[in-house]
Amino acid sequence: GMSVTGMCEPDFSFMDLTAPMWACEGALTAAEVLLTYVANVLDKPSAFKFRRISAGASGFVNKLGACSGAMEVFCRCGWTLTTLPHGDFYVLHRVDVPLLRKVRTELSVAIRTAEAIRTSRQGAEQ
To answer: Which regions of 11-126 does DSSP assign to beta strands (E)?
Structure first.
């Protein structure tokens, strides 16, 4: 049957593309970063600056790199580690719009759900 924790914790199992990241401690922070990357590419698929992310950038390393599941999803979106003359970058060589749209939807839903849960918990505590 339903356990008490099962009622309180969101079930992200329907998220087939982003499933690997939800077990990670910093999943929501990683989700917000990944959502930004994906949304930028979908908004401007031809803008190379959004498809190239510095592998050493602190925001990337601390927020996305810290969550192995998020890195798995990031790579599944098509970003590949590439050595360019001025450093190592994750480059999205091919933009798979349907895939990125689905990832964007999953991330948005997860973030909204988590925020709703956080808000309801705060309400319960007061």
So the answer is: 52-54, 79-84, 87-92
